[in-house]
Every structure is written in structure tokens, then in C-alpha cells.
Amino acid sequence: SIDRTFIDSLPKAELHLHIEGTLEPELKLELARRNGVEIGQSTVEQVRATYEFTDLTSFLAIYYPAMEVLVTEQDFHDLAMAYLCRAAADGVVRAEIFFDPQAHTSRGIPFSTVIDGLWSAVQEAPSLGVDAALIMCFLRDHSVESARETLEASLPYRDRIVGVGLDSDERGNPPEKFSEVFAAAKDAGYRLTMHCDIDQEQSISNIATVLHTIGVERIDHGTNILEDPSLVAEAKQQGIGFTCCPVSNSFVTEQMKGAEIVQLLREGLKVSIASDDPAYFGGYVGDNIAALAEAQHLTRDEVVQLARNSLEISWADDARKQDWL
Ligand code: HPA
Ligand code: ZN
């Protein structure tokens, strides 16, 4: 088997990481105390006991309410710094961090509070050896108008945000719901990615839409593409990046989807590995690579390829990429 020090020693990018999903029980308790928010839990064990779910829907039902402890700019800064320290230990040299502004603005936290707190952490990241960037995600179970307003609110901060994504509950919220918003985001200079979750029934048609109509550079999750070999060929030809999260998959579907991830990798697609919501799923990026390597008996060369892919499909400056690759 492949030892963990080898995995951690490889420079890598983490490209599928929801900052709100890095809220560890210890920090949740500290923020609740600091902000005087009554959360109904007072020990780490009690908080961890609430981090219980069986699928994406039950996960999201716990995930959004837990964010009530995030109130001030300092809270967002501290959340992001805690993640960046943890990522640096796993050899992450580039972190593209998802954030969900609507999960905060919808409960009265100003957009500026969220972005200012996260941005100050991004600026501090090089001191940890990490080049960090922010990707703003729209919540697909909110209205198109809300997404449009969020895009509008982001424009004064355009230079702090590298791209946009789409997350939350995919059921009944297909990518075409947001085609106009994504076209406007692209016009504003944002790079594009979208979640295509693994537990969906209309998954393959959503993946086709994401590739053909939305015009993304990356797909988050997306392993269901294997159901349509012509789409696999297209994604390969276009160099579409995939950000796969084996530990998260095993919570959402009771399977890592390891065989699917590795099949795409072996067919030459740009597959990378990431942690999604590590505080909830219990594994940071190194744990995710180690779990996949073990379950699928990856070779050292394949593990190296996963790390290289993550850097290649990252949205870092080309000069930085050349240094890492
Ligand atoms: N899918 C959809 N929404 C999410 C996810 C995910 O993997 N993680 C956090 N929000
Ligand atoms: Zn995700």
C-alpha cells in the first residue's frame, strides 16, 4: 500500500472544498460562545452527534442550520485559516475554496462580511505555503432571482473571486435553471464549474447540459458521466476537469464510487480528488486520496497523476502552475 507521507509530500490542489463544510465541532462551539448563539450543544461529542445523515438531503438539512454561528468577518477569517492550516499539512499548495453567500445573506449576514473575512484569509494563505482563491457558489434550490442578485452583489469584489459554481439540492433544480446567470457570470470574467451529484436520477442529462449549454471547465463530482461513453469522449477531448470526493460519496451513497473515479482516471480524463465537506465527512484531502488508493489498489504513478491533474485543472496563474508541475 502507499504510505501517507508519500501522499502528503505531493504538491496538490484542492478544488472541491466548501468552506462552510470545514466547521469542526471545536470551532463551532467557540464561535457559538463568542457570538452568544444558543446552539443546544455544549460539548464536542454533542456537536459531532448532530453531524449524522444518510444522504445528501439529510446532510444539507444539518449543514445549513449549523452555519448560524458564523456571524462576524473574524468568524469567516478564522474558519478559512483553520482549513488552510489543515490543507497545508496535506501538501495542498493551491486551494480553490467554495463559499455559499446565500447561506449567509439569507439570514441577514451582509455579503461584505463574508467576502472580507474570507479574503483576509486568502491574503494570509501564502504564509502557510498555500496559494488560495475563492469560488462563489449559487444555491440551486434558491430562486434564479436570488442567484442573479448574488451575482450582482459579487461584482464589486470581482477581483477577489476566480469563478462561480452551483451546489445544494440538485433534485428539481437542473443546470438550465441557471443558464442565464452562468452566461452573465462568464461575461463578467468568472470561470465556471458546477456540481453534478452522484445520487441523481436525471444525472446524465444534467451532465450533458453542463457540458453543452453551460460550458463549464470543470464538473464537481460528475462520475455518472460513465453512463454515456460519448460524453466521456467529449469531456476527455475538451480537457474537462473532474473534482471527485470519495469519502463524501461514501456518506451520500454508501459507496466511494472508487471504481468509477479510477476508470475515468485510467481513460485519461482530468480527475482530481478533494474533500467536499471534511468536518462532516471526517476526511481531509490526504485522507481522501489514501482511502481511494487503498480501496482501488492505485499505483504510485496513479497517485502522482491525481495530484498533477489537480494542479493542471486548477485556475491558478500559468506561471505558478509551471512551478508546481
Ligand atoms: N453537493 C451539493 N451541495 C453541497 C455539497 C455537495 O457535494 N457539499 C456542500 N453542499
Ligand atoms: Zn460539493
UniProtKB/TrEMBL annotation:
Keywords assigned by UniProt, alphabetized? Hydrolase, Metal-binding, Nucleotide metabolism, Zinc
What is the top-level taxon of the source organism? Bacteria
- For this protein, the Enzyme Commission number is 3.5.4.2
* Site location (Important for catalytic activity): 221
UniProt: substrate binding residues:
277
Cellular component, GO, one term: cytosol
Annotated residues that bind Zn(2+) are located at: 16, 18, 195, 276
Q: Which Pfam families match?
A: A_deaminase
Record Gene3D superfamilies: Metal-dependent hydrolases
User: Which GO molecular-function terms appear in the entry?
Assistant: adenine deaminase activity; zinc ion binding
- Enumerate the cofactors the protein uses: Zn(2+)
Residue span(s) of domain Adenosine deaminase: 11-325
Q: What does this protein do?
A: Catalyzes the hydrolytic deamination of adenine to hypoxanthine. Plays an important role in the purine salvage pathway and in nitrogen catabolism.
The entry assigns this protein to a family as follows: Belongs to the metallo-dependent hydrolases superfamily. Adenosine and AMP deaminases family. Adenine deaminase type 2 subfamily.
Which PANTHER family does its entry note?
ADENINE DEAMINASE, ADENOSINE DEAMINASE DOMAIN-CONTAINING PROTEIN
User: What's this protein's name?
Assistant: Adenine deaminase
What's the source species' lineage?
A: Bacteria, Bacillati, Actinomycetota, Actinomycetes, Micrococcales
Its gene is: add
